[in-house]
Write a sequence for this structure.
């Protein structure tokens, strides 16, 4: 299989977040898409091994922060290569609580959702979320970051838990 063909698909870079009691969690994802307009519903894909997955599954709520091309690149590494179980990923980044969910401030926009369904894939759960709230960040006003931008311009790496991760031995 030529994995380069899959890299031609459009992806964004997002931080999926959730909250259980006082515990804030989040992880970097690139699989998020609006799937219906009425009600407005989005789907996100979270690796079964992510601590954030467990919190979303229990609380039935999540938010996504849409990173911009000017977002601090350290957000991606912090939320993508560490576990919320062991690290407070929010400690070095500004955030706010919206609809009892953490959303980052250094982003293009955010969306909060309640889970209305889920689909199990071999390594990930696809959570369907009915949108509760969504807002564009008037302070950034810049382009959302694409996964292609993340790799080409920022020279970013792919976490083993990412939906698009391909082991080196399977790459061409």
């Amino acid at each position: 299989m030529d994995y380069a063909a899959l890299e031609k698909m459009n992806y964004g870079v997002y931080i999926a977040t959730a909250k259980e009691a006082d515990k804030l969690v989040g992880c970097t994802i690139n699989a998020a898409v609006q799937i219906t307009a009425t009600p407005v519903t989005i789907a996100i894909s979270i690796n079964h091994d992510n601590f954030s997955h467990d919190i979303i599954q229990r609380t039935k709520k999540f938010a996504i922060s849409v990173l911009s091309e000017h977002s601090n690149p350290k957000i991606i590494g912090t939320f993508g290569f560490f576990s919320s179980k062991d690290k407070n990923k929010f400690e070095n980044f500004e955030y706010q609580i919206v609809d009892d969910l953490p959303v980052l401030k250094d982003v293009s926009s955010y969306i909060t959702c309640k889970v209305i369904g889920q689909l199990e894939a071999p390594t990930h759960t696809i959570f369907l979320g009915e949108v509760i709230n969504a807002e564009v960040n008037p302070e950034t006003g810049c382009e959302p970051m694409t996964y292609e931008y993340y790799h080409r311009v920022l020279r970013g790496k792919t976490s083993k838990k990412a939906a698009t991760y391909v082991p080196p031995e399977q790459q061409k």
Observations:
- The radius of gyration is 15 Å.
- The chain is about 15% helix and 40% strand.
- Residues 51-59 form the longest helix (9 residues).
